[in-house]
Amino acid sequence: MKKNTLIILLALLFSQAAICKNFTVRSQEEFKTAVSQAVAGDVIIIANGTYTGWAVKVPTVANAAHPLSIRAETRDKVIFTGDTDQSVFEISGSYIVLQGLIFKGCNVLKADGKVGVLVEFKNSTDCRLTQCLFTQNAAKAQFTPLVIVSGTGQHNRVDSCRFISNIDNQELQIKITKEACPVNTLIENNIFENKAKVNWKVFNGGECVQIGQDPVLLGTSIAKSIVRYNRFINCNGEPEVISNKSSGNSYIHNYFENCEGELVMRGGHDCVIDSNVINGGTGGIRINGTGHIITHNTISNVKTGIRLMYGMGRGKSEIGFYIAASNCVIKNNHIEKAATGILVGDNKNADWTGKFNTTRYPSRVIQDVAPFDNTIGDNIFTDCGQTIKE
Questions:
Q1: Residue 307 contacts by C-beta under 8 Å, 6 or more apart in sequence?
Q2: What is the model's pTM?
Q3: Does the pLDDT value for residue 14 go beyond 50?
């Protein structure tokens, strides 16, 4: 009986493989036709060439055994370029893989209520963006990302992509709103490199990875994103190379080299920052919020290794434009060649009057709540001017 069942299952699998189709497309219209016909297990191949003006949606529902694959005919031989005020690719189905494309010289626009983005996972489940190159693309409005994960998505993945020499943009955004928070996004094995400082006001809006946008109203949203094994080289877009504004995320085994910015817990709580390497640049790790675990990181050749910040509020229930660092664990880190190893209490009494909207963010404006109840121990300091400064 078991043998017969196995034979039947194998027959079904081979049958499924036999009926899977390959579609080769050479235009947006052919792509849309292919998507309307494609089912689980099919492959849509975009022919080698350069394309402009695309805005396509992929709502296909596939499955783990038979995903829908959308790929370049030859990796790095399919190039998308030009202006866009829509999503070039909007992925809203399940088990869809987008692979091997180049996005080069795109201008991402905001106009007449439309917002340009190169790839968006919107309410998608178990979808993947892999082996794509994003280079020399430019945002023409502040706070504009190239890649977005949004809506009620789950278990989406961005891996093995390269983000190189993009201009005035955010690279990768997990978008969190009052209505929806994508969960369990995996960002791994990507390269972020050679990002110049943005030209926007106060040099804001140039993060490589941003998880959440509103530290006050949405910082308690639990995204459970994992950011691991990524490389950030010469990323100088703004002071936050990674900007965390949600809760329950993990930043593990990432490498930072000569970045004019930090790994920043700007908002949110209960995140894990473990086994990252930071070598050179303007700083290491900056902490606001409560319950973070900062362990086994190696930080060298920076001014300050780890900063625990003052806030306008405390804990998870008080509202503050910044929340004081509290109940965090900072252990087993190695900080080398820093002017200050760990600084407990930065930005004391900073006055934010007129610098943020107190109607939207109902917070006091003086950063006067000191860090408290943090556990600091078993850290190693080498050639530091000061080890722990309070």
A1: 262, 283, 284, 285, 286, 287, 342, 343, 346
A2: 0.94
A3: no
